[in-house]
Amino acid sequence: MRVFNSSSVSWRQLKDRAFFIAVCTLSLVMAIPLVAIIGEVIQKGYKQINLQFFTEVAPSTLDAMLAREAGGVIPGGIVNGIIGTLLMVGAAALIAIPVGIMGGVYLAEKPKAIFSIIVKFLTDLIQGTPSIIVGIIAYTVIVVPLGSYSAIAGSIALSIMMLPLIVRSTEETLKMLPTTLKEAGLALGASYTNVVLKVLLPSAFSGLFTGILLATSRVLGETAPLMMTALGSSTISWNLENPASAVPLLIWEFYNDPNLIDLIWSSSLFLLLLILIFNFIAKYIVERSSK
Amino acid sequence: MKDNNILKLKDVSISYVPGKNAVNKVCAEIKENSITAIMGPSGCGKSTLLRAINRMHELYPDINISGEIILRDQNILKMNPIKVRRMAGMVFQRPNPFPTMSIYNNVLAGYKLNGIKLPKAEKDQIVEECLRSVGLWDEVKESLNKKGTFLSGGQQQRLCIARALALKPDILLMDEPTSALDPIATNRIEELLLEIKKHLTIVIVTHNMSQAARISDYSMFMYLGELVEYDKTELMFTNPSDKRTEQYLNGQFG
Amino acid sequence: MRDKIFKILLLLSALIIVLICGGMFYFLVMGSTEAFGHFGIFNFISTAEWDPNPDNEQYGALSFIVGTVMTSFLALLFCIPFSLPVALFNGEYFRGTKIALFMSTVVNLLAGIPSVIYGLWGFYTLRPLIISLGLSEQGFGILTASLVLAIMIIPYAASLSSEFISMVSNELKEAAYSLGATRFEVIKSVIFSSSASGIFASYILALGRALGETMAVTMLIGNTNNIPTSLTDTSNTMASVIANQFGEASDLRLSSLIAIGLILFLITAVINFIGKMIIKRFN
Lengths: 291, 254, 283
Known about the structure:
The structure holds three protein chains of three kinds. Chain A is mainly alpha-helical. Chain A is 76% helix and 0% strand. Chain A folds into two domains: 1-45; 81-290, MetI-like (MetI-like fold), CATH 1.10.3720.10. Chain A starts with 5 loop residues before the first helix and ends with a helix. The relative contact order of chain A is 0.15. Chain B has one domain: P-loop containing nucleotide triphosphate hydrolases (Rossmann fold), CATH 3.40.50. Helices cover 35% and strands 26% of the residues of chain B. In chain B, the strands form two sheets. In chain B, strands 6-7-8-3-9-10 form a six-stranded mixed beta sheet, sandwiched between helices. The longest helix of chain B is centred in the middle third of the chain and has 14 residues, at 120-133. Chains in contact: A-B, A-C, B-C. At the A-C interface, α1, α2, α5, α6 and α7 of A face α1, α3, α4, α5 and α6 of C.
């Protein structure tokens, strides 16, 4: 055996130890911003959350100012934002889910075709496109021709952002299914359509559903594209052709209005909870289906 | 009294799950400059035992080991694992040269990883010496700066042996080193081992009985974690003393 | 017959993706023509003046390009010392254990927080901190924006690179251990060198994220149209100037904003393309 300096071994082990401790410390530091952000939102936001918060529209600056001067809680809620969010995200999902799933089926069925490779590449391109640019497009294509800001323009912007996530998750889930499943279906004499709709997609259900939930939770907090399309609205609007509000849009408005600042935190708390619920359901499904 | 047993196993037990020994109270002494083959059906604990001699079991939590493993009069279970691993070289089932390193640097990987800086002349000397001893020098001397992964499977495995030899270990542990290779490459490695054993002790795990018969001086037969029989290879193959060994050699299980 | 219609529907869905991409590019180019025609492409990119005064309308993207590059790279710089440890934590040291699950939950939650809430947190918590440290008077600027941006891209970089780290084969790691390497040395010489291109690609993709991030940056960068000369300067990024001025802009100014959008679109597309290509080669 060649002779090695034994003190160098302990020095190396010390370095090993130090590196490990550094890795753990720096990793755990990541919990600080998480706790700080969630803590701040809860601490400053919970007071405003009451029944009114879910039933009334956002107050005017004047009302809020008077309430503040009287030392009370700002009146009103964010129901216009909640309804707008539900409306726009719901409509976006209605557009993106069928198109995304069918696009994903196409990619999974023809993985080697040049057209598929191009589509996959473009899907990644859309996914990487900043949301503000999707906003510009929805503005140019829908708001300008229609002559007004509208919820539908917001929905389309959000659906463009959801689409690539749904396409890729569908494709990946379908690829993991055994090929025998499809063959078994076809062998029984089922038509291709029925095999896809009644065998493949139901077998891939949990994967598809997770993808849809994650895509939805991704757009729930989107603000920039809605500023350029839905604009915002101080009243409840169920009409897709009218401008609409959304929770993140309200947060932005409250942020810009000193009198309404108290409402920022409750709205943020609500938005965070909504997103967390979507994430947790998605995660729960993944865990349950992997068992 | 000085014997020529380089490695002594005393009551070595290893368990993955408490109370269930994968290796159970193995006692054996291994002679210097010999080849000892460990045989047995899969799951008998032969690889587990071999890896313990290099303290590789410590890479995975929840493995318990008891007893003593004495290498050159030192209980390696009480030593610093880093020093143990340099005293005991290891060659694995599948050739695993470092894909990011050249052939030259693969041979010197032990030095590089251990942070030992050597003068260029000495490095060149070690590389040539080790590659010659595994019969690879003439094949690769023109392409020392190429990546090791360009070599054939058999060449890669010989490069891995050279990498282990470069640290001048006291013992070379081999875990089914030819199971991923074709017969010609296997033959080449077997010849090489017979050459290397002149100055190095080799312990080789194999489930290829004819390989054990061809190259080993001593053979161990393990079954369900126990060392059933340990004897000179020729004796064990011609006249096994335990019925289970006989059954195994007749191909009745495993 | 039904099968035929169904297959056509599948093809059409895939075609929609192509149309969206083509449409995005087309409308960005069409929207930019006025600005590019008026100022010239090269001139538009290389001048920093941004003046909406009707008598002397003058628009150039340079200061926003510089602002974007500065904030994004600074964010990447802040991101690496945290995302790399998290990647090692999850992909090597505690791979597959409960504690790694906890860590990845933390990271996933961070990734789920909307940009606008990061902006609020930056404004109400980080900005006062910057002020009290005496780094800047108002607390707005490149530094504040990059710090928040870094927190936003860490989850992305960390989870991607931890995947590449955990893909390094056990056989290689064992080979290094059997030669007497410590875990640190195995990480340094084997894990990093075999996953280097994957880790690099993770940072490229994280950079792509940072380039286009809008709300948080808009709320923290200070929104001034100048080329930043120091880290605590206020500035604007391409995304933040669009977010800030799009609503009030028309004609030449609107076209100039869309032109900035086109430039941003192309930059992020190229960055993402490079990242994906490296990953493809890695696999």
